[in-house]
Amino acid sequence: MIRLVFLALLSLSIFTGTGAEAQSLTELRTRLQAALQRSLSRSMLGGALPHLDLETGSLTRFYPTENHEVILKLGDVYVMCATLVTKDGREAPVDYYITHGEGRFGVIRTEIDNRAPLHALMESGRAERLE
After folding, report:
1. How many structural domains are present in the chain?
2. Which helix (H) or strand (E) covers residue 42, if one does?
3. pLDDT, tens digit, for every residue of 115-128?
4. Are 49 and 63 spatial neighbours (Cβ–Cβ below 8 Å)?
5. Long-range residue pairs from 108-113, CB within 8 A, at least 24 positions apart, any chain
6. CATH number of the domain encompassing residue 47
7. What are 85's strand-pairing partners?
8. Is 1's pLDDT higher than 50?
9. Furthest-apart CA pair in the chain: how many Å?
């Protein structure tokens, strides 16, 4: 199954071209999801995404639960949102900032339980929802 998914993604990347070329929302979503999965597989430890709160020094282990369908665009940066949950059931929103370079997409910033930057970008009109 993993080989099939890999081959499908590889085929998609060959036929979709690069960065600024027009592509359907479905193709874009697929490529962004693949980049997000690659990033998560590198960042997760023991099935959890560790997050260090730089204000308190506390380390929290978050577990992915659901991805949201909405994709936002900010220039050459896309934002995908999801919900994470702690072992005790506390939910936290997460925003993944993804851009394109060197023929592929990659996550460049992750905001866990901090919606203020994204809300500010949306309110200023710099981040817009893709339809």
Report:
1. 1
2. helix 25-43
3. 999 999 999 999 99
4. yes
5. 108/77, 110/39, 112/49, 112/51, 112/62, 112/84, 113/51
6. 3.10.450
7. 63, 91
8. no
9. 47
